[in-house]
TrEMBL record:
Cupin type-2 domain segment(s): 32-91
The protein, known as: Cupin domain protein
Organism: Pacificibacter marinus
A family per Pfam: Cupin_2
Highest taxon in the source lineage: Bacteria
InterPro entries for the chain: Bacilysin_H2HPP_isomerase, Cupin_2, KdgF, RmlC-like_jellyroll, RmlC_Cupin_sf
SUPFAM superfamilies, per the entry: RmlC-like cupins
Length: 105
């Protein structure tokens, strides 16, 4: 039995694509590919989120605090924190959510 499952890539908007990489009811890993000037609109969710910057350069906002990140950086976004980002250099974020984000399936 194979444990590998392939999920389709979803075009979120003109600048952002999303792909679930793996999931179960307690954990989900998702790739977000951003073109320069793409934005992740401010939002919140009950999931704890860990973000790893695989490539590119971004400005993030978490509960009003802004900070810049680049390839190799990572950070955690608490449950229900209002957050979003702006992409300054084309790149990819790898986000992990606990529990799983059913809205991405």
């Amino acid at each position: 039995m194979s444990h590998v499952r392939t999920f389709p890539e979803v075009q979120v908007d003109a600048f952002v694509r999303r792909q679930v990489l793996s999931e179960n009811e307690n954990l989900m890993v998702v790739s977000f590919s951003f073109e320069k000037d793409g934005e992740g609109a401010l939002h919140s969710h009950p999931h704890i989120q860990s973000t790893y910057v695989e490539s590119g350069a971004f400005t993030f906002s978490i509960d009003g605090e802004k900070f810049d990140v680049k390839a190799g950086d990572s950070f955690v976004i608490p449950s229900n924190a209002v957050h979003g980002c702006t992409c300054h250099e084309t790149g990819r974020l790898v986000d992990t959510f606990t529990p799983r984000r059913d809205d991405f399936l």
